[in-house]
Design brief:
Blueprint (H helix, E strand, L loop, with lengths): L2 H13 L2 H16 L2 H14 L3 H10 L14 E4 L6 E5 L1 H24 L4
Antiparallel strand pairs: 1-2
Length: 120
């Protein structure tokens, strides 16, 4: 058993007890209440996309807080070009995932539809 496996086993055993879970839940509650999740999200946007918190909020305000693709849902996910890395807008989670699949599968899907469409 590697050192990492031993460390993971100790952590699992610690959280398997009611007291361990309660202590973990208490720590996580304090973290969320102190804004830890917002701070983490802002630092990840800066690191991954070079997008400051002020720039993110300005983009969100320009979009009225809604998805840039026009679905009407709350925008939360940064959309960026995987080739250039340039940020395109802020999307809802569903549109962001859908657009990612579209970019990944577009050529294959187009070829499939052309091969299998009857009467065209």
């Amino acid at each position: 058993m590697t050192e990492r496996d031993k460390r993971n086993a100790r952590a699992r055993a610690k959280y398997a007890t009611p007291d361990g879970r309660a202590a973990h839940n208490k720590r996580m509650r304090r973290w969320y209440q102190s804004g830890g999740n917002r701070i983490l999200a802002a630092s990840q946007r800066k690191r991954l996309y070079g997008l400051s918190d002020a720039a993110f909020n300005a983009m969100l305000k320009a979009q009225a807080g809604l998805c840039a693709m026009g679905c009407g849902k709350a925008a939360k996910a940064v959309d960026h070009c995987h080739v250039t890395g340039k940020v395109r807008g802020i999307l809802c989670l569903g549109c962001n995932v859908g657009l990612g699949f579209y970019e990944l599968l577009h050529d294959r899907a187009k070829a499939y539809l052309e091969r299998t469409s009857h009467g065209r």
